[in-house]
């Protein structure tokens, strides 16, 4: 008699086999078995869902020297969570997370759409001040654009402004007077007529010509105009100008920025956006060789108390002997995004049987893996994600499961635990480098009651994205000149 197992039975058998494999690996070597699991502090993670406003925002602008030698002299500002600069602290974590995921879905869809558009990009050869400098990064994961903020000075005299940092965008811009349409920001809207260093850009200038044809035009005044739209419906339009930006004691002159007179969208609290992408019009592209196309950031971990992060520029500030360096992969079809050489995933010390081609960037610019500050949740090809998730579930059989939430399909009720043991989760890169994530970076609370979810999601949009939840608390260094990306210790 022929017996055909149901799909449910087949899945149970597969799960059992994976569990046996993981237990065999963990028990087969006493020396390495404990390294295949780690502990998640449930109570600490839940405490981090509560937001506590800071009473003294002025400390945000104070520089402090890091613990480095005099030769390195790395400037670093004290940081605070972006939630501290909004007056609306009444929403519960569950509501804030739901809103963040909605924005995240739009972000991922927008990235996929942008990657299917071939853009004409020319190299920027403008020269700027050669100096290493830094500024503080503020987490904006719970509101607004769902990204992170940096406070910099704009114009002369200096007007301090909060700006979203975005490794997936190029053009920098701020809201400007006169404002035909502006959203609410925490600082007064920048007025270019009060700045002695503000210079409009003509349509015939080489700077204007560097704008993408779809994002530029010529106004009635002969001034270069720009227009940028984002995946969530946000947009900014205005004129292009050269202006002075100030990062603490460091001044950078003649930076091309957008002066936005019509702006709308999810940029709550921030005055604009600081583009850190790889294109010629980004802040990194404009400074170019002056900073060796090198910058680094450490995104603050979730939680409203004592959370700080950093943003630094220049190879002397990002180089670290303790960092793990992996190759960047260039996509000629899109210079903006930073592609990394991910080749596989690991759970519980095992590299999973996932075909490498699922992460490959094709010659046509399809596929590949982006590391992005603006995306929250890491997206993986559906086939890779399902293998990844199933192995993780096999290593958490003792934890009570609950229905999924939002884009998460693997969730647990940890309300009765103070500490739980979970298998390690790791990224495998070309050349053998492995990044093992802290437990808090892949099992996150979705409410205040103790529901935690596996913070990854499947995607059929082609490109994979390593999101900012997985990057939190890890020093990320990008050396565009050498074509390397580094994962270092927590230096937030």
TrEMBL record:
Segments forming domain Peptidase A1: 148-488
Top-level taxonomic group: Eukaryota
Alphabetical UniProt keywords: Aspartyl protease, DNA-binding, Hydrolase, Protease, Signal
Alphabetized GO MF terms: aspartic-type endopeptidase activity; DNA binding
Signal peptide: 1-28
Keyword Protease belongs to the record: yes
Gene Ontology BP term (one): proteolysis
A Pfam match: TAXi_N
InterPro entries, per database record: CND41-like, PEPTIDASE_A1, Peptidase_aspartic_dom_sf, Plant_Aspart_Prot_A1, TAXi_C, TAXi_N
Keyword Transit peptide attached: no
Family: Belongs to the peptidase A1 family.
Protein name from the UniProt record: Peptidase A1 domain-containing protein
């Amino acid at each position: 008699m022929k017996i055909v197992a149901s799909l449910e039975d087949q899945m149970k058998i597969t799960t059992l086999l994976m569990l046996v494999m993981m237990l065999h690996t963990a028990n087969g070597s006493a020396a390495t078995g404990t390294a295949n699991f780690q502990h998640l502090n449930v109570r600490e993670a839940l405490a981090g869902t509560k937001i506590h406003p800071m009473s003294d925002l002025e400390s945000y602008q104070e520089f402090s020297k890091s613990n480095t030698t005099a030769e390195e002299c790395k400037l670093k500002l004290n940081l605070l969570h972006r939630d501290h600069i909004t007056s609306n602290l009444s929403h519960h974590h569950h509501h804030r997370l739901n809103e963040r995921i909605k924005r995240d879905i739009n972000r991922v869809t927008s990235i996929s759409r942008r990657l299917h558009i071939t853009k004409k990009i020319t190299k920027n050869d403008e020269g700027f001040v050669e100096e290493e400098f830094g500024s503080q990064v503020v987490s904006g994961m719970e509101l607004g654009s769902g990204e992170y903020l940096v406070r910099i000075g704009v114009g002369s005299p200096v007007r301090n402004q909060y700006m979203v940092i975005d490794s997936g965008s190029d053009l920098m811009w701020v809201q400007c007077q006169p404002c035909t349409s502006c959203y609410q920001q925490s600082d007064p809207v920048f007025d270019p007529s009060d700045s002695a260093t503000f210079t409009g850009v003509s349509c015939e200038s080489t700077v204007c010509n560097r704008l993408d044809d779809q994002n530029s035009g010529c106004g009635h005044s002969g001034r270069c105009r720009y227009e940028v739209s984002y995946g969530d419906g946000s947009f900014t339009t205005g004129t292009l100008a050269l202006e002075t930006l100030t990062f603490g004691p460091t001044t950078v002159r003649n930076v091309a920025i957008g002066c936005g007179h019509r702006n709308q969208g999810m940029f709550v609290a921030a005055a604009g956006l600081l583009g850190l992408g790889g294109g010629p019009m980004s802040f990194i592209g404009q400074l170019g060789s002056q900073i060796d196309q090198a910058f680094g950031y450490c995104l603050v971990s979730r939680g409203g108390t004592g959370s700080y992060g950093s943003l630094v520029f220049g190879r002397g500030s990002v180089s670290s002997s303790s960092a793990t360096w992996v190759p960047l992969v260039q996509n000629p079809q899109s210079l903006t995004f930073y592609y990394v050489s991910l080749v596989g995933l690991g759970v519980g010390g095992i590299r999973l049987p996932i075909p490498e081609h699922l992460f490959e960037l094709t010659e046509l610019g399809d596929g590949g893996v982006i590391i992005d500050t603006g995306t929250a949740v890491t997206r993986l090809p559906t086939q890779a994600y399902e293998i990844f998730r199933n192995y993780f579930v096999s290593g958490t059989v003792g934890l009570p499961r609950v229905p999924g939430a939002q884009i998460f399909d693997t969730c647990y009720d940890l309300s009765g635990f103070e500490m739980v043991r979970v298998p390690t989760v790791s990224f495998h890169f070309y050349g053998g480098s492995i990044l093992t994530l802290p437990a808090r970076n892949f099992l996150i609370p979705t409410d205040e009651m103790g529901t935690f979810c596996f913070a990854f999601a499947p995607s059929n949009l082609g490109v994979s994205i390593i999101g900012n939840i997985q990057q939190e608390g890890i020093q990320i260094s990008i050396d565009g000149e050498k074509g390397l990306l580094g994962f270092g210790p927590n230096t937030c």
